[in-house]
Predict the 3D structure of the following.
Amino acid sequence: MALRAHRSLLVAALLSGVASAGAQPISAYRGPCDASAAVALDADHFVVGEDERNALHVYRRGQDQAVGTVPLSRFLGTRADGESDIEGAALIGSRIYWITSHGRDSHGKSFQSRRRIFATDIVPGSSPTVTPVGSPYAGLLRDIKDAPELKPYRLGKAAKRAAEAEGGFNIEGLAATPDGQLLIGLRNPVPQGRALLIPLRNPAGVVQGERARLGSPIELDLGQRGIRSIDLVGSSYLISAGPPADVGTFAVYRWSGRTGEAAVTINGVDLKDLRPEALFAIPQTASVQLLSDDGGLQVEGVECKKLSPARQTFRSLTFTP
């Protein structure tokens, strides 16, 4: 079958769901299947990180092919140690901070390549892109283990388990705070069924080699779910929440950002079978764009992430919360 026909079948399969009223139809973008982190570069462009290859991809909204790719293996120093497993991104000014899972693989094997915080600066223009800055930081897991505020959660013990195992350790969310700090969102563990956010006080210093200064953790009730993505949208946060393992339901929540206040489910967003792992505000609009990690989606009997790169696609849903 010709490549164009393959692509047509793939897009048709991915678009089989429909969005709820008030949301735009689900759209598909070619490139990686597993879009796991993203940030808007301007009102028309966004950059996507994935958890299979060490690269960032720039897209123009509504155009299915990437308009640019930024390779990262050399910068991250991970060529000999496998994928970095990029899972979260947050924008502070014109700088984007990225974080990897810091978790073990499904067999419980540890990889140094999955332990990175790094930064890129936006290069504006008619076709914007990003460029790496500073140095990747590989000491966050050590800092988490050493932080007195986090000792009761026994995250060092969790980090010895597979990322999706019960009580394992897996980072998937990253968000900016209004005062220029970051919140690190954990998919796993979910102690007593509550999701964890860990404040990172000095992101600019971390990518210059400083040890991470961590604050007191914040617990959120997300219906037994962990954090898959979190973004500061206006004066509050939107959170995509999903199961700590691979089976369960997803939901979108709004949280004020104030410790002790509950997160509230946003109704009316029909996710269908989307697995939203990236969520970000679209500048100059009231809308939010959500990207689905479709690595495990079956396309003609084959998992999307096992297709050739030319046939891989992830889905996107835009809505107004």
